[in-house]
Amino acid sequence: MKAPSLLLALLIFTGGCAFKAVKQEKDIQYTSKILDLKLPKKELNVFAPKFADNLPVLVFFYGGSWESGKKETYGFLGRRLARRDLVVVIADYPLSPEYQIQEMEKSAVEAILWTKYNIQEYGGDPNRIVASGHSAGAHLASLVTMKNDIWDSLGIENPIAAAILNDPGGVDMPWFFEVTKGTGEGDKYYKTFTEDPEVWEEYSSIYALDGDEPPILVLKGENTYPGIDYTVDRFMEKADSLNADVEVSLYKKKKHIPMITQFFWTWSQGYDDVIDFMENLD
Fold first, then answer.
1. Helix (H, G, I), strand (E, B) or coil at 90
2. CA neighbor of 203 nearest in space, from 106, 270, 114
3. For residue 69, what are the contacts with CB-CB under 8 A and spacing of at least 6?
4. Which residues form the signal peptide (predicted)?
């Protein structure tokens, strides 16, 4: 066999998923204002294998300190996961300072609702929706997974089957604001969470944790930001005390940003964890 042919054979054998055709549907409006007339128009992108049929679905919310980011940046994630037989939804959401955490949560709920009612058209299984995100986006994913007040107000059972939280921020904002008081470190987040301690608690997922949530996988960088390090540890301590179905995968020497940029490479630990977790959903 000639060298180029041998190389091609090796690529197909070891990384054949890179050759799978992926369908991309972009700029689909998902906000309906069903929850809030003030919600802005927001859109999402869908990535699916060409012949997808009843595959698990990952709904991804990006990070950016609740104030920046756009869905187009994460097309690489959607394409790579679609080649691994997942259907992926990547959604924009309102950002601060124009909008605050209340509107962000409502928008994230509407993204899940859109997915529930439309994803079969793209080959996804509406009974295997996994909410996910990185950093601030992981925080939003945790809220729509664990807080059921909006779902209850709609008379809809929460359709999220599981969650994958990649280095999540915001899981215990009262604690964070208390320990950073007077340092200026937490002040920049008031534009998202307001200066009302009741809002901090209401939108911190640690206070929604009750042991009845679906399976949750937390991906944590060993060298992440201290605020994330400590609040995730507090979250896991509470989860353990409740025997909640929450597990953590620790990434040795990984900092916060590399926890998402690792997904540029399909052989990363991140892909292994995500694929394994989703393949084992009931």
1. strand
2. 106
3. 62, 63, 92, 95, 137
4. 1-20
Distance CA 220, CA 257 (A): 11
Around Cβ 268, how many Cβ atoms within 10 Å? 17
> What structural domains does the chain harbor?
49-279 (3.40.50.1820)
| Cβ partners under 8 Å of residue 269, min gap 6 | 249, 251, 262
List the chain pLDDT tens, one digit each, 282 residues: 344 444 344 334 344 455 689 999 999 999 998 888 789 999 999 999 999 999 999 999 999 999 999 999 999 999 999 999 999 999 999 999 999 999 999 999 999 999 999 999 999 999 999 999 999 999 999 999 999 999 999 999 999 999 999 999 999 999 999 999 989 889 999 999 999 999 999 999 999 999 999 999 999 999 999 999 999 999 999 999 999 999 999 999 999 999 999 999 989 999 999 999 999 987
3 state DSSP class of 160? strand
* Residue partners of 246: CB distance under 8 A and separation at least 6: 209, 213, 215, 216, 217, 218, 235, 236, 239
Note whether 91 and 111 are within 8 A (CB).
yes
Rounded Cα distance between 23 and 6, Å, is 29
Q: For residues 137 and 130, what is the distance between their CA atoms, to the nearest angstrom?
A: 13
d(CA 19, CA 229): 38
pTM above 0.90, yes or no: yes
Answer whether 104's CB lies under 8 Å from 66's CB: yes
Closest of 161, 133, 146, 139 to residue 60, by C-alpha: 133
Instruction: List % helix, strand, coil for the chain (3-state, nearest 5).
Output: 45, 20, 35
